[in-house]
Amino acid sequence: MKLKFPISTAVAIAVGLIVLLGYFLSSDMLVGLRVAFLEWAVILAAFALMVGIVNLAYVHWRKTATAQTNSIYSFVLLVSLLLTILVVGWFGPSHEFSRWIFNYIQVPLETSLMALLAIILAYASFRLLGRRLNTVSIVFVITVLIVLIAATPVMGFDVPGLSEFRDWIVQVPSVAGTRGILLGVALGIIATGLRILLGSDRPYKG
Amino acid sequence: MVMKILGLVFILAFLGLMIFFTIKSRRQRVGSIREISAFNRLRRSIGLSVESGRRMHLSLGRGNLISTQSAVAFVGLSSLARIARVTSVSDRPPVSTSGDGSVTILMQDTLRTTARQYGGEYDPMSGQLSGLTPFSYAAGTLSIIHDEDISANLLLGSFGSEVALINEAGERSGSLTLAGTDNVAAQAVIYASAHEPLIGEETYASGAYLGVGRMHVASLQAQDILRWVLAGAIVIGSILKLVGVL
Prior knowledge:
The complex is a heterodimer. Helix content of chain A is about 80%, strand content about 0%. Chain A has a domain at about 1-90. Chain A starts with a helix and ends in a 9-residue tail after the last helix. By secondary structure, chain A is an all-alpha fold. Chain B has 2 domains: about 35-210, Rossmann fold (3-Layer(aba) Sandwich); about 215-245. Chain B has 9 helices and 6 strands. Chain B has helices spanning about 1-25, 35-50, 70-85, 100-115, 135-145, 165-175, 185-195, 205-210, 215-240; strands spanning about 55-60, 95-100, 125-130, 150-160, 175-180, 195-200. The chains are: A mainly alpha, B alpha/beta. Chains A and B meet through helix 1, helix 2, helix 4 and helix 7 of A and helix 1, helix 3, helix 4, strand 3 and helix 5 of B.
């Protein structure tokens, strides 16, 4: 069923207001409604996950069927998806075969990507100086070097005072900066939430 | 209880300021907002992608809609709607990716509605769930950046350190990468690896800079005022603590 804009907006605003007020006001009815709405949202999110998997399969099916660039990878994904669904569906998620798929295919693949990530990050940090050579970038790269060297002394050689300096960086300027950024993020989250409550942002257009 | 009332008062003050600035902007022209180079480059690349017939890519991250990560996903959705509208004259609509089922549904709905409103044809392949775990999401997104003739990547959503892999793909394919997230650790990664990083609240300001609506600019003005209020409260609180009052 497709709801018209004003109805869907009114429903979204009403539910949003009840959930928000349920946090601040200690009314049993409001708290009960808030918990019920959140439980419904969790159920809907779980269903959306299944819809997402269908979308993933559809996209890669179309890539394979129309022989697009690198469609062989889409074919591999479809076969893997089908095999995983069959094995986990037939034997259950905690069976030895299901765990084998997770431990010997999923984990090694993700671990190898993580290893690649470490190299990419190190490379990106140095490329940063070529891309944006300014004071902030220089401070960024120097801080990264100090923290890395102090955390993993090369061949056991420990520069006196470096470890304490690293601790100071991590505990004082880093925490201060993080809190400043989090303050901005929190204000941004409130602004976004209020825009949705006011019906200004409507990601549920229908 | 006092903290809850203070929280509610803060939100009501925020709401009041947003409504005040929205009404004010209808009566008189809003002064200019500060320049953020990332958004200047984004606007240019949207225009260039329409002219050159290449696609924009928007990645909305892995945040779901039932946590605090939903806010940044909603910001991404607003930007997606705006970019889809602007590029509706092009024969190549933007492609968007997500790592969460519910965001994927909203993303497809946004693209479908925009196509319908502007007489375009909706392509179900333009909104994709690229993976459900951090690295499968990154791996799925890499193939889109490499295969879809992308001119610019806008990453607005909840990401972890895997965002570096996506930025690296943008670098290798020669497309512009602008990225912003709510995750502080990932912001450091983005600062090092993206062409144009968006730090802190800049991510949430994208709607105001892309011209999504008056309310986005008004919320930015309200944020500026309340940031000073919070900073003042922190300084006063520190002084009171120092002199032993608190």
